[in-house]
Amino acid sequence: MRVCGRARAPLSWLICALGVMGLAWAYTAHSATLGYWRFEETPGTLVSIDQVGAHNGTNFGVGTGATPLQVANVFGTPVPKNGLVNLQSMEFARVDDNEGGTVEAAAGLDVGSGDFTLECWVLTRNVGDLIGLIAGKRVSGSFGDRGYELLTQPPTGSSGYKIRWMIRAGGPAVQTFSGDLNFDQWYHVAGVRSNGTLSIFIDGVLASSVTDGIQGVSINSGQFFAVGGARIGNRYHDGFIDEVRLSNRALSPSQFLRDSTPEPPGTPPVVSSTMPPAGATDVPGNTAIVIVLDNGTLQVQTNSIVLRLNGQQVSPTITKTNETITIVYVPPQTLPPASTNAVRLVFNDDAGPPNLYTNEFSFVVLFQGPRPGRLQDAGPGNLLVLEAEHFDRNLAAGGSSWEFITEPIGFAGDGAMQALPDAGRNVGQVTTASPRLDFQVEFVTSGQHYIWVRGIGDGLPEPGTND
Description:
There is one protein chain. The protein has about 475 residues and is mainly beta. The chain has two domains: about 25-255, Jelly Rolls (Sandwich), CATH 2.60.120; about 270-365, Immunoglobulin-like, CATH 2.60.40. The chain has strands at about 1-5, 15-20, 35, 45-50, 55-60, 70, 90, 100-105, 115-125, 130-135, 145-155, 160-170, 175, 185-195, 195-200, 205-210, 225, 240-245, 270-275, 290-295, 305-310, 310-315, 315-320, 325-330, 340-350, 355-365, 395, 405, 415-420, 435-440. Strands 3, 6, 7, 9, 14, 15, 16 and 18 form an eight-stranded antiparallel beta sheet that branches. A hairpin with a 4-residue loop joins strand 12 (about 160-170) and strand 13.
């Protein structure tokens, strides 16, 4: 029996070091500032102080969503370095499109029909196929479809996410987009409305701009200004947000929350070895994952280390000996035979601001041959029941592979197999361009056989689709 279908592209292995912020950022108050939220309150405080006005925010958990929480040492240190004490960032945990966390300020904070700037720092963990509010006055039919907002959304490519900058005055929206961005990485984002143009900047660099087709039209509404989601309008963020500032004039990049003095360069830490080696095959299913880091003049911040196996964050053992950091993770269960397993390590160094590093590699577990109990029943019906996760071989194709999951619940056996992401994928050449699961069966009878497959989908397929 062969099962074929659509699947996510497996993570290819690579080693890269990305400077999250190459600049030191400083805050200078100016008369144009309408509101500035730094999230430096005592953790658990339910009020987020507006540093320049009377628009303090209240922290809410909506539905089963957790109340946003001030968190210190996000990936080693909060950002940005503002020339002010900055010890914390605000964490938002989304449940779904209608449940999550929000920091909601009072009504007001309107910008009328004039120029203005909305800026902040954002680190996104996940978007799935949903849109999330970073900050702004969420556009909603309850408030005449008027407002302004920075949003996260699924990417153009196969990974990461985009940021959308949008304004609306009741009619069609004016919007522009960033390029594809990385998860688990801090970015400074600024949306600017200026003299007939709507622009978005990432880390102080213009990402894109469009003509403001509603120039001179007011976008005021009775909606609340909110960060991380909106109680009316929903759309919740999953990740961290810091240093949110709204200004009633169009700022230039030199006026964003930064100055232009770069930190001196240093020698970065490096990944000196991984076990299993990247791309290894025939790896024992009970293998331990070991990654060794060597410090340069820039030091690994061990409390910033995040390790994921097959997309799930895990808890490794981390030890430091002199200038060497060893990361060890032993999976609690034997990895399935012939499975492709993706490892992703993220950490940052002690530069100011810190540099973010990502190391990704994959390996394939040893194929152990057919499992016992694959003999077709000789009784009435000649039935044979197979668990999808008990395959004999998991073969990648077309840059994709199947993955073992344990959610959502309702499966039989140990778990299920799922192909992710499924958005935008439609593999027609199933025999050549699709990954497959192979099951070896010894048939006891000839003739016509029928196969039933049990699965779960997000909903009924639309006309013309093949789900």
